[in-house]
Design a protein that fits this description.
This protein has 261 residues and is an alpha+beta fold. It contains 6 helices and 9 strands. The strands form 3 sheets. A 4-stranded antiparallel β-sheet has the order 6-7-9-8. A 3-stranded mixed β-sheet has the order 2-1-3, with no helix packed on it. Strand 4 and strand 5 form a beta hairpin.
Length: 261
């Protein structure tokens, strides 16, 4: 479409200057371009009329910008498969007992007198009467008060129709090393270090720890909350208990995730 505009009012003495504006609208679909022509009178002059053309290309109002592409979201890879953990505590062959000498150590903030690390435990015993996959060994080699505490708690449990089996008690340093080697062979070194402490750190070697089985037994014992002197010590070993008369008044200390060597 052409539009011609002229200034009104004053007479024109000179030639006209014609300004032609061509604008091309780019629509979403093809459409004819539009043209506008504006005639403007020029000042008086002897110069013939001239035409000025201005062309422009304008985007269609209906065109919208391309939306930005979203950045790809990374998907995390699969979690590593957890390793299996041993189900029971293997037994070892005891070494010959030697003379007992006491040393002092600390367990969960409690000062403990240790039994002779060279004194071996039984290493094995008769099958547990309620679950024969476990042993029920004698408390031989444990510190004297620990041994008495075990006899007392086992009697109390029996009065409640619960059978406590001593699956593992005192170990010598040699037995502890043999146990670590057995775990390495059966479960790998990483799991062995997760469950078996060096002899100098083991409460079994020091004579105030027991491993209680089966599950009904150690669950019952844990529920006593130290009132009888026995406390569960580690999150990863529900069967491992240590004895101290201080627990009877203060209660059990906070559990550790695992044995710390």
């Amino acid at each position: 479409m052409s539009l011609v505009a002229g200034c009104s009012g004053a007479p024109t003495a000179g030639p006209e200057v014609t300004v032609t504006v061509r604008s091309t609208v780019v629509p979403t679909t093809a459409a004819p371009s539009s043209q506008s022509v504006i005639s403007v009178p020029a000042a008086p002059s002897s110069t013939p009329a001239s035409t000025i053309e201005v062309s422009s290309t304008l985007p269609s109002a209906s065109r919208s910008p391309t939306p930005p592409t979203s950045a790809p979201v990374s998907t995390p890879g699969p979690s590593p498969t957890p390793k299996t953990t041993p189900k029971t505590t293997p037994k070892t062959t005891p070494s010959s007992p030697k003379t007992t000498t006491g040393t002092t150590g600390t367990s969960a903030g409690v000062s403990q007198v240790s039994a002779d690390p060279n004194v071996a435990g039984p290493g094995d015993g008769p099958a547990c009467s309620v679950d024969p996959q476990y042993s029920d060994e004698a408390p031989t080699g444990l510190r004297a008060d620990v041994r008495a505490g075990w006899v007392a708690i086992k009697k109390l449990a029996a009065s409640k129709k619960v059978t406590l089996c001593l699956n593992d008690g005192k170990r010598s340093a040699a037995q502890q090393i043999a146990l670590f080697d057995e775990y390495v062979k059966d479960y790998g070194e990483a799991n062995a270090r997760f469950y078996v402490l060096p002899p100098a750190k083991s409460a079994h070697v020091k004579g105030y720890a027991v491993d209680v089985q089966p599950a009904t037994a150690y669950q019952w014992l844990q529920a006593t909350k130290g009132r009888q002197g026995w406390c569960r010590m580690y999150d990863n070993e529900p069967w491992h208990f240590e004895y101290s008369t201080s627990y009877q008044k203060a209660g059990c200390p906070a559990r550790l995730p695992k044995p710390i060597g």
